[in-house]
Design brief:
Structural class: alpha/beta
Distance between the termini: 52 Å
Strand content: 25-35%
Oligomer: single chain
Helix content: 25-40%
Number of strands: 17
Largest sheet: 7 strands, mixed
Number of helices: 16
Length: 411
């Protein structure tokens, strides 16, 4: 039998409203008792008595046994979630930055107090990737996880490639549709995708990595020359986070734009959709596809977590408990495409091998092999140069799985 959930909801924005819309169509053993909001004067679609601006009305209410956290203030979210877990309340959250930054603390709180924190809605919207990594792949050796984890940046890239729309116009459309924030840095800079990657990697590999140590480079410097080059090669550009096991002791994580060909799953993932590719040793390659943005898609993932709490479900973090030899590293060589202006940048980045180099008027690029640490050390220089960097294993004629295995021999 499922137990009755009395819910305290923090936040009633796009996802909060989407969650409520879905809940009212269902006959589940749950009830939203109170909703905490910031603006008491904003017009709401529900009766005023349901709302409060005082968080303690939810956190200190003994009748409320479940907290659903859907706000966009990272530190406030952590305080709410940690207090709830410590006081015996289970929690569902969609705050990927908060979870990625505080994951170790949140795991410890769950274990100490016997409570459960679920966060399917924090990673790739409607795609149930966390539960699958936690349950289906719990005993599986995973070679890599990659994909499109951010619907906002993918919307902009799709508009640019499919409709020849310039970057600024595509960004404005994404903002108007609610896919991108007023400050789009987290989306287009690859930060949002990085937070989601860190969370996914904890369940896939059992490694808990500080997001600040993971390299992310976004699409802010994408130019018409880069899109035209991709078209000429029958490729598309996607912003792709990657977690890859190099050997028994090392796993690498990074976020970069990537050239993908028409044989790859990600080639046809367009606009606000997300796609996750899991490369497993025994199950081989598997692909998850679904909407990664919007109130109803994300709300459906949040509701799935809420429903699981009715049966006392919790993450077991099996790989984190079992595997102690796997460590995060940035010591990996990648084949990249670099479109640049200043020749000194190429020299500073210290390519170990150059496959192709091109000069034509104002368009210059180089394709070659570089250590990821060199990109990290020169990230500010790349930004100042307005250079565009993309993962380019397709252009170098190199198979990623083979190439990374060769690199791993150096450890």
């Amino acid at each position: 039998m499922s137990k009755k959930l009395n819910i305290g909801l923090f936040g009633f924005g796009v996802v909060g409203q989407g969650l409520y819309d879905i809940i009212k169509t269902k006959h589940l053993n749950l009830e939203i008792k109170k909703i905490a909001i910031k603006d008491a004067h904003k017009q709401r679609s529900l009766p005023a008595h349901l709302f409060t601006t005082e968080r303690d009305e939810l956190l200190n209410n003994p009748e409320i046994n479940t907290i659903v956290e859907l706000i966009n203030d990272t530190e406030a979210a952590f305080e709410i979630v940690s207090r709830a877990l410590s006081s015996g309340k289970n929690v569902v959250s969609a705050s990927k930055k908060m979870i990625a930054l505080h994951l170790k603390e949140l795991i410890d709180l769950q274990q100490k107090h016997g409570t459960s924190l679920l966060y399917e809605g924090a990673v790739c919207g409607s795609i149930p990737i966390i539960r699958n990594l936690e349950e289906y792949y719990d005993n599986e050796l995973l070679h890599s996880i990659s994909g499109i984890f951010n619907g906002s940046s993918n919307y902009i890239l799709s508009k640019g490639f499919n409709e020849n729309m310039d970057y600024d116009t595509a960004l404005k459309q994404a903002q108007d549709l609610g896919f991108a924030e007023t400050d789009p840095t987290s989306d287009v800079g690859g930060f949002d995708a990085k937070y989601k990657l860190v969370i996914a990697a904890a369940h896939a590999y059992g490694v808990i990595v500080n997001p600040d140590d993971v390299f992310n480079l976004g699409i802010q410097n994408l130019a018409a020359h880069d899109l035209q080059y991709a078209r000429e090669k029958n490729l598309k550009i996607k912003l792709v986070p990657v977690a890859k096991e190099l050997d028994d002791n090392h796993v690498a994580l990074f976020v970069l734009p990537k050239f993908v060909n028409d044989k790859e799953f990600l080639y046809n993932v367009e606009y606000e959709y997300n796609g996750v590719i899991v490369q497993a040793a025994f199950a081989d390659q598997q692909f998850f596809f679904g909407k990664g943005a919007g109130g109803h898609p994300t709300g459906s993932a949040v509701l799935s977590d809420i429903a699981a709490l009715r049966y006392d479900y919790g993450y077991e973090y099996k790989k984190a408990k079992e595997r102690t030899s796997l460590n995060f590293t940035n010591n990996i060589e990648l084949n990249i495409y670099l479109r640049y202006e200043d020749e000194a940048l190429v020299e500073t980045l210290n390519f170990t091998h150059i496959h192709e180099r091109y000069y034509s008027g104002g368009y210059k690029f180089v394709i070659g092999k570089i250590n990821l640490q060199n990109l990290i050390d020169n990230q500010q220089l790349i930004a100042n140069n307005k250079a565009f960097v993309a993962f380019a294993d397709q252009l170098a004629g190199v198979n990623l799985a083979t190439e990374t295995a060769i690199v791993a021999e150096a450890f």
